[in-house]
Specification:
mainly beta; Metal Binding Protein, Guanine Nucleotide Exchange Factor, Chain A; seven-stranded mixed β-sheet; three-stranded antiparallel β-sheet; 10 strands
């Protein structure tokens, strides 16, 4: 399933070829919280070959050795994240045109969960990275 996404102002657009086995999860870590401005972020991770930048030139910031976060230099919208080994690209579901097309299956980094953000589902929970995290 091809999913399109982009930033708030429309300067940057991308597409993801989402497959049923792709990692889709909630992340409660402090880095995602700071980068998104939200208490939790839902992500999809795909192989780099299934991600295509369609328009614009995003800017990047690397705040840890684990990955580089890409965002729109015009409006500041978070767009995607890459890892140094080029194993995967993670895109926040909120950047997709149709975020409801995907549904997270687990919660990661619940050890960093904001105390007032209650988890009201029965999905598996991991204190830090889910075991399959790329």
């Amino acid at each position: 399933m091809i999913l399109a996404g982009g930033c708030l102002c429309g300067a940057v657009r991308f597409e993801i070829d989402a497959q049923p086995a792709d990692v889709v999860d909630y992340c409660h870590c402090a880095l995602c919280r700071r980068a998104s401005g939200a208490p939790v972020t839902a992500w999809i991770q795909v192989a780099p070959a299934r991600f295509a930048l369609k328009r614009g030139q995003p800017r990047s910031v690397s705040v840890t050795a684990r990955g580089t976060r890409w965002f729109c230099g015009d409006c500041g919208s978070p767009l995607y994240m890459t890892d140094p080994e080029a194993r995967s690209i993670g895109a926040p579901l909120g950047a997709l045109d149709e975020p409801s097309a995907l549904r997270p299956t687990v919660h990661g980094w619940v050890s960093s969960r904001v105390a007032w953000c209650e988890i009201a589902d029965d999905l598996p929970r991991y204190q830090e990275d889910p075991p399959y995290d790329l």
